[in-house]
Amino acid sequence: MKPRSEAGAEARILDAAMEELRKNGRRRLTVVEIAAQLGMSHANVYRYFESKAALVDALMLRWLQPVEAELRVIADGPDPAYDKLERLISALNSAYRDRLESEPVLFQLFAESVDASRGVTRRHRLRVQSEIQRVVDEGLASGLFAIGDQRRALGLVYDTMHRFIHPVCVRLDASSARAPLELRRDRVMRLLLRGLQTGRMAG
């Protein structure tokens, strides 16, 4: 665990970087400007973050952690697997859409990072997939899902819900009204759950 003073300094740097990013975008984000905001030298910023890319990755990690925490809470819950899967997909889609609307600059960075398969977003995607897999495994183990194996069940989830849970797809839908998209999501979700529970959608 880092000393409190170091953790506090990192948090202040990240706060300043977030403010600068919101105001001026990534291209104009500089370590020198962040340091000036904080009244420190840019060399001091580099003590905590080795590069601007590392700083942006740390911002992204902090920005995505609440999403991952919410998914863990849902996956850990006592509800039946089909309820948890519906809530998990809806929560993920809503969290991404919320961030797209409230923080478009950061969401653009997020989508670009996913496209480039950067480590921070790759690990985020793996953590998201892990929570989905936990719920699917629970549904298979309990007999609530009728599809014969995990691979086919997960394939069905990702194939049907891709538009609603992949960050790049969420970004592409930025100009579409939210309410009709959520209705579509919920309709597709019902089809998915029917397929998982009956096995009839699985090829």
Question: Can you put this structure into words, describing what you see?
Answer:
- Helix 5 (81-102) packs antiparallel against helix 7 (119-142) and helix 5 packs antiparallel against helix 10.
- Helix content is 80%, strand content 0%.
- The chain has 2 domains: 1-50, Arc Repressor Mutant, subunit A; 57-198, Tetracycline Repressor, domain 2 (Orthogonal Bundle).
- It has 203 residues and is mostly helical.
- The radius of gyration is 20 Å and the shape is elongated.
- It is built from 10 helices and no strands.
- It has helices at residues 4-24, 31-38, 42-48, 52-76, 81-102, 104-115, 119-142, 150-165, 167-172, 178-198.
Jot down its keywords.
Tetracycline Repressor, domain 2, 80% helix, mainly alpha, Arc Repressor Mutant, subunit A, 2 domains, single chain, 203 residues
Amino- and carboxy-terminal Cα gap: 49 Å
Derived from helix and strand composition plus strand pairing, the structural class reads mainly alpha
Strand fraction: under 5%
The arrangement of helices and strands along the chain is: HHHHHHHHHH
**Cα radius of gyration in angstroms:** 20 Å
Question: Would you tell me which CATH topology of the largest domain applies?
Answer: Tetracycline Repressor, domain 2
> What is the CATH-assigned architecture of the largest domain?
Orthogonal Bundle
Could you give the count of β-strands? Answer: 0
- Oligomer kind: single chain
3D shape = elongated
Low-confidence runs:
none
Count of helical stretches: 10
Helical residues, percent: over 70%
CATH class of the largest domain: Mainly Alpha
CATH superfamily of the largest domain: Tetracycline Repressor, domain 2
